[in-house]
Amino acid sequence: MHFLEENGAVTFPVRVVPRSSKNEIVGEHDGALKVKIASPPVDGAANEELTRLLSKTFGVAKSSVEIVAGHTSKTKRIRINGVTAEKARKLIGGDPVFSVSHGFCGKPKVPES
Fold this sequence. Notes:
113 residues; alpha+beta; eight-stranded mixed sheet
């Protein structure tokens, strides 16, 4: 899964599975973050629950989570303001960081204990 870092935000693909038994981040599936949502995809309920879950996971305000593409699709592009690609990858896993301002950054080195 690739994270695009740009202007103080990170963007990445998400694959939503609505009407699940509970809300949870499952992991990567076909290059996107797979997220199970209990709400049905009716009147934006699943999108609302998705933004709530992601804001809690990343520790940001709900207003910092934006669906930039795929509002009516199971596959979406999500932008989270105030989060770096490095933090996103640490929280949910994924491929090396790509920053618009810095190009390919590689995987950050985790200090050994």
